[in-house]
Amino acid sequence: MHPIVKPALRRGWRDLNTVQFGMTPAHAMVLGPMDTATGSFLELLDGTRGMPLLREQGREMGLPDGHVDGLVDRLAGSGLVDDTTGGGPAADALRKRKEVMDRLRPDLASLSLVAREPGGAVGRLAARRRLRVQVRGAGRVGAVLAALLAGAGVGEVEVRDVGRVEPWDVAPGGLAVESIGERREDAARRAVRRAAPDRPPRVPARRGAGEDTRGVSLVVLAPRDGLAVHAPDPLSAEGLISSGTPHLYAGVVEATGVVGPLVLPGETGCAGCLDQWRTDVDPAWPRLVAQWRSGRQRKVAACDLALAAAVAGLAASHALSFLDGDQPVGAGTRWEASLPGCVWRATPVRAHPACSCGTARKTNGEGTPEDGEAHETMAGRQPHAAQLAGTWRAHV
Q: Cα(first)–Cα(last) distance of the chain, in Å?
């Protein structure tokens, strides 16, 4: 072990005997009391020395036997120490790829604040390179989201879509203006490669394998038509549910960004559950959805560029958290933000007893919403009748 005090945390002395690591409440920690010699010894924890050398230099500084090991153990137990040689064989192989490590250094520093154990950050980064994610949709949200995942170290990011790039598909970090008129899948593949030119070699996709999810850790559904995120068709996710494939919804509809739910089949509510709850609350819901789906699709959707970027960023963050093995905060939750305020609101999507996914039965009915909560949570905050009437009169 070559311990290093996590460089991502700024250090400051609160007084002569107390040191604070970090600035933000989420990750800051105060350590004390600390004598002068121990405070000076902290400077030696820079990742260049192994424990034998640190013990020897500690003795030279007048620290008693066992003090160095106790200090390092204490710091490690507090999540303040990393190991520049830890993480296992995959991490060792990654460290040899200097161009990769240099590009991912900010991500590594961020992971060091989440992964408390020494060597955990580089271990997670190495694990990302072995993962495969499929993004379905290559519009303003999907293409940017795919590039973000690839740029953050996910080894294989596969984008699926049809048709050719239109001018309104172009977005910074996503499809380039030079790709207008090209096949969306080809243009998205190049955007992903630009974001991570040092990724492992891509496994060629088999023809007709668009729905094949074998070996896929996560599918992100980011359709260009925001209706498929606002009111996702349960039938379109049947294959994902039956195969047990985790999937996440993300998109923009009528100047409203939507992220979630992250569906863990058999554990959380799915698109079918969302549809069932909405129908329970609003009997007109199925009739409305049928009209929306059968009506003429608008060629250009109301998809603000900044809002699309925010959706792609939040969805990528939720996806990476899940892929890294953290508690999936987005599981069974739907996040929405509407312009002009762009304030994110989280509402649960609980398992419905009547949904064919069967999750409610597996979870012993824990998916039932509390009394009085269903309207706000499941109906998607439908407009109040008086508000609709007032708006109609104003427009007339």
A: 74
